[in-house]
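Notebook, p. 212. Picked up where the previous page left off. The plan for this session was modest: take the two constructs that came back from the sequencing core last week, fold each one, and keep the raw output in the notebook itself so nobody has to go hunting through shared drives later. Recording the first one now, exactly as returned: residue sequence, then the structure token string.
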Amino acid sequence: MTIYKELLGEDFHKLHPKLQERYMLPLGQPFQGTGTMSKIETGPAWLKPFLTYAVRRKFLFPESGKDVPFTIKNSCRLLQSGETEVYWERSFLFKEETRQFNAFMTIDAERGVVKDYLGEPSLFYSDLNLSVNHDGGLHIQSGSQRFLAGSFEIPLPSLFRGEVAVEEGYDEVCGCYTIKVDINNKLIGRMMTYEGTFTALSG
């Protein structure tokens, strides 16, 4: 059973059938997709040094653009601890550079959240809350967060969090998945947003 199905319970079946298929993720059978991000926008210019550093951790990046080719791969695997983990690999193929935005997800069943370690090696941790929209789309909202410094995890006050909102759906007319991601901070404003579509690769 995928971590997302376990967490959503009966609500998992309220997802669009294509999203159920996408998030089932049997062990050893990754989901792979390819598409285009119609819009990618990053934060203010003074944030560029941090975003440039984040590139080294396969996290955020400083580039913005339109109609940027995109690939995604989600792999489900068992950890030595016995937990099930989903490894996220997202690539944005700009003309000059390819940027990654990777993550490692497990669940905390008692608290009812996804535990999201962002970057590779991970730079930030965030709780994620999942819910199903009225139209069968998946909504993801971030909660408490921590900055990771080696073996230390430093809780972030709400003013310093990157508040994440994700909307993923399926467009039956074009036969593709839709994605919109917004990352904002109460002080800075927009840190990154991207949106677009992708389709599953067969096999």
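Okay, moving on. Second construct, recorded in the same format:
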Amino acid sequence: MFSFSLWFWALLALLFFWAIGAYNRLVRLRSAVVKAFAVLDEQLVRQLVWVQGCLPEAMRGGAVTAPGELQDEVTAAWARLHAASEQFAVALAQARAQPIDVPGMASLVMAHEALRTAWASALADAVPPDAVPSAERLQSRWMRLLHQSLPLRTAFNDAAQAYNQAIAQFPAAVVARLFGFRPAGTVTRLAEGR
């Protein structure tokens, strides 16, 4: 009887200490995801600030035209870029508040794609050929900003995948489910060069 009780308590203690270790590992992995996003966030903020700085002076403070007012092609291209940059700023703020949130990361990726599309449209439709700086120089700087974020995006995605694998593996999945660890989103297409 004494032997069974000793084995029971030893097994219970082993299980308890294993659960504490598994929990601490999941917390470390989640923290690594948050830290990796903080570094990526800095680079994305640089992209956003740079794009907003390229907007015409009149657009930097807010809306350029009243609703329903006709716009020429150039103003419309800048207005699309302004709207896309505002949308990206909102998505970035949401992702910053919850860097583990899957829908938040998906929203960030979609907003970045909209910003890239609006940027290409603004360069094509609104920057005259004799502009200083030229469209090629603006595009070159934009591509440099995108490429600078590639290793940061990879580091974030790697951290998120390691965390997601850890919360999915049995028996750590039991601890993850018990303490509410949710899968992290990734930024798969964000900042790929085009």
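Notes on construct two before I forget. The chain has five helices and no strands.
Flagging for discussion at group meeting.
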